[in-house]
Amino acid sequence: MKLHVGCAMWTLARWQGRLLPHPLPPRERLAAYATWCNAVEGNTTFYATPSRATVEMWAAQAPEDFRFLLKLPKPVTHERRLAPEVFAPDGALHSFFTAIEPLGRHAALWIQLPASFGPTDLPTLAAFLSRVPKGYRYAVEVRHPAFFDGSRGERDLEALLTEADAEWVPFDTTVLYETPPTTDAEREAWSKKPRLPRRTRALTRFPVVRYIGRDDAELTAQGWQPWADITAQWLREGRSPTVFIHTPDNADAPVLARRFHEDVRRRVPEVEALAEPMPVGPPTLF
């Protein structure tokens, strides 16, 4: 029984020399991170599609059971809004799928939609999901308030995703907004992150959760307790969840992701333990 946990990135300046060895060449950075966590979000693919050679380098560093959640390119989701023309053979979507092919089953694909993409756009989403290449898992993140108010829009989206065997990705910001920000990073997060109700229902065997806490580790851990309970239940049901732990500054995100994993293991001891992290420096005699 395996639980996947991860962060929003696999390298961060504040981790270097403290959590991960420094310096590390690009061909070793993901491998070092993968000793801490067994999943990672791929946000950079939203802004630019990597070269196939770069993705081959990622694949070479990823352990057998490692998971990537790769965000579809901005021109596909936000500029063209999943319109039929995104399937053009010379377009961004084709380039994206060509580039990520070396990851194979390591990759799940994350369709993050703009806040203006609402219930009236669901036929477009249904048509898009019917045409995307098979062999990948798809996970959809929506931010329109009408999908969170118990109305027909919410029910229709859930039915659509269930039919397509695609997951609904919750981005849980409730703890972030529970009390006023106390750090610069929290204040910046308040200006950018969506403020929506917590959603906890899984639709597939592979639920995905994105949780953001606070720059205070204890507040972050207190806030994820409902998710630890839910994740434990999913595992007992035979599901294979992936949970991403964020904080506004992400300074200790790998440590917190592992702590979440241990919280779930206390509830479900059968869950396989994570590997020991790579040592930051060489061993010493004293």
From TrEMBL:
Membrane-traversing stretches: none
Listed Gene3D superfamilies: Protein of unknown function UPF0759 (3.20.20.410)
Top-rank taxon, per record: Bacteria
One Pfam short name: DUF72
Protein name: DUF72 domain-containing protein
Lineage, opening ranks: Bacteria, Bacillati, Actinomycetota, Actinomycetes, Catenulisporales
